Amino acid sequence: MSARADLVVARPEGLYCPAGDFHIDPWRPVTRAVITHAHGDHARPGSQRYIATTASEAVLRTRLGDIDLATLAYGESIRIGDVDVSLHPAGHVLGSAQVRIARGGEVWVASGDYKTDADPTCVPFEPVRCDTFITESTFGLPIYRWTPPAEVFADIAQWWRGNAAASRVSLVYAYAFGKAQRILAGLAAAGATDVGPIVCHGAVEVLNDAYRRSNVGLPATLRVDDVDPASLRHALVLAPPSAAGTPWLRRFGDVSDAFASGWMRLRGARRRRALDRGFVLSDHADWPGLNAAIESTGASRVIVTHGNVPVMVRWLAERGLEASSFATEYDEDAAEAGA
C-alpha cells in the first residue's frame, strides 16, 4: 500500500487518521471524533471529545446533549498529532463540512455528505484541492439530475395554494434536520408564506429553534396546539417521515400529503408510498454535481464511502482516476429521510 493511504484508513469504529489519532464521523464511540455534520448517521453519541464547525454547534448540542465539543470556523487550521486539519463548507446542511488533512506535501479531503445546489440555510460547497478525495455517492447514478430548487419551491407553493383554496391541509414529509428548514427558507424566497399558517412537528420545530439560534432566517412556524382550528385548514404542515400513521396526524382532518426527497426522481417511488405528490428535492449532490465536485478537487485518487459505490468506482476508474471504496455504516438517515 502506498504511503499516502496512511492518512485515512477504515477501522471497525469508522474512518481513522493514524497520524492524527482521530476518527471522522465514527459509528462507534472513540476518543476523538471529527464530525462533518449533525445527521444521526454521522454524529453519534458516546465519544469522549468532538470537533466540528462553529456553525454546527447548536444543532449538535440539540441532538447529542452536553458533549465535550471544540469548534472551528470554516478554513481555520489546527494541528492534531502530525497533521494539519481544517474544515471547509460542504453545502449539505447547516454547519456541514469537508475535513481537509495535510501532512508534508500530501492532502486528503473527506467530504462527508455534500450538495452543489444553492441553499440559503447553509454555506455553499467549497471545492478543496487535494490528492485524495473521499466522497459520498448517495445519488451516484446518471438518472439522478435535480430540478432547479427555485422551481421546486414554486411548485410546492402552487400546490399549497390549491389545497388551501379547497380547505385542505398540505402535509409535506421532510427530514427534520436540513430538509425542513430548506423548504421553509425556499417558500419564504418564493413569497409563499402568507397562504396560511406553517405548522411543524415537534421534531422539526426543535431544530428550527437551533437554526434560529445560529442566525439562519426562517419564516414563522407554529406547533399544532398553537394554531386556530379554523385556520388549520389552510396550513402547510412539515413532519418527519417517521410521523406517518401516528396519532399526531389525525388532528388535521382532510389532508393532501407529499414527500420531499431525491428518491422522488424514481418512477414509482411516490406510488409505493401512496402519496398525492412527490417533490424532487435533495440535500445531496446529483450525478452531475458529484462529478463536478470530484473534478474540482483535482484529486488523482478517489475513495467512495456510501451510496451507489460500485457504479461510481467503476465510472471514475474508466476516466483514469485511481478509484476504490471504504466500507462504512452511513446511510441510516438517507433511508429514513428520503435524502
Structure commentary:
There is one protein chain. This protein has about 350 residues and is an alpha/beta fold. It has two domains: about 5-145 and about 285-335, Ribonuclease Z/Hydroxyacylglutathione hydrolase-like (Metallo-beta-lactamase, Chain A), CATH 3.60.15; about 150-280, 3-Layer(aba) Sandwich (Rossmann fold). The protein contains nine helices and 18 strands. It has helices spanning about 55-65, 150-165, 180-190, 200-215, 230, 270, 285-295, 310-320, 330-335, and strands spanning about 10, 15, 20-25, 30-35, 50-55, 70, 75-80, 85-90, 95-105, 105-110, 130-135, 170-175, 200, 235-240, 255-260, 275-280, 300-305, 320-325. The strands form three sheets. Strands 7-8-9-10-11-17-18 form a seven-stranded mixed β-sheet, covered by helices on one side. It has a six-stranded mixed β-sheet with strand order 1-2-3-4-5-6, with no helix packed on it. The radius of gyration is 20 Å and the shape is globular.
Features:
9 helices; 2 domains; 24% helix; Rossmann fold; six-stranded mixed β-sheet; 24% strand; alpha/beta; 339 residues; Metallo-beta-lactamase, Chain A
Provide a short characterization of the protein structure:
The chain has 339 residues and is α/β, with parallel strands linked by helices. It has helices spanning 57-64, 149-165, 179-189, 202-213, 229-232, 269-272, 287-297, 309-318, 332-337; strands at 9-11, 14-17, 22-24, 32-34, 49-53, 69-72, 77-80, 83-89, 97-103, 106-110, 132-137, 169-173, 198-200, 236-239, 255-260, 277-279, 301-307, 322-325.
